[in-house]
Please model this.
Amino acid sequence: MQVYLRRKHMNRKFGLFAASVICTMLCAAPVYAEGWKQNDSGTVWKYEKSDGTEAKNEWLWIDGNHDCIAECYYFGNDGTMFSSTTTPDGYQVNESGAWVSEGNVMKCVVTTSNTYGTMPYVGIMNDPDTIAAGKHLVAPAGQVTGTEAYLDFLNDTVMSTQTAEKQAQIEQRAAAGLAKHNYYKGLSAEQAAQADKIARNVANAILNDSTKETDLDRVRAAAQFTAFCCSSCQYGVDKERYYRTPYGVFISGVFTCSGSTRALGRILDYMGIDWDHANENQYTHQWCIVTLDGQRSWADGMAGMADYGNQ
Model:
């Protein structure tokens, strides 16, 4: 199931060359106004996708008000959104067209990046008891799994389903990562513990997810979660220097490229994955260098992306 949403963009300065290239591309390609469409009488709602086609015979997760929370809608043969009825595949939608289950609107937290056309990990946000039990909700058009939005990563605990031996190896990796990367220089033990609890909970949730079958799947999920956190933070430096730490991304709400890299790296530690810091302490872009599925790879916590090869 694809997620259609308008992405939030960070303000960036582009050179004249980049601007001219973008202008050329925009002039050469058709521009489609992705979003909701209503008929003249206001009785029918349809949705135009980013490629200019109407949604038909499908479910879409749509973040209509750009708050990074999407609802799920069904569109019929002629593109009309279903409302206050049962869909052909047996699911209920309310008067607004949103998928409901037992009276609750089903929602999904979405990140600012869906480059790979898959639902970001941050996931379904209904029924905390179901998620706490280690189960997954099934969306109408396929499985969409993830962490529960009502679950407080700081105060609650996501239990690992790994074997005792595997979990011991992961904890050793996390301890080694702490020594290697010195994540919390100048921070208190309590601050470090708070950020580590979030990193561990996210790592456990990802490792518990049976739909993430490869190292790349799991690391992409971690990168997407990190980028989602960054999207709610302020980019820049602070006098406490939280910006360069996982604490800045997960707790205090301030980050730079180095901080997003270390935040993702700390999750990777708790997933049992060793990583190296590309361009550490340099005034340029930074990311994690990792080995995934036996291949040299990269993961970018600021962009919410990961792939095989070199970035």
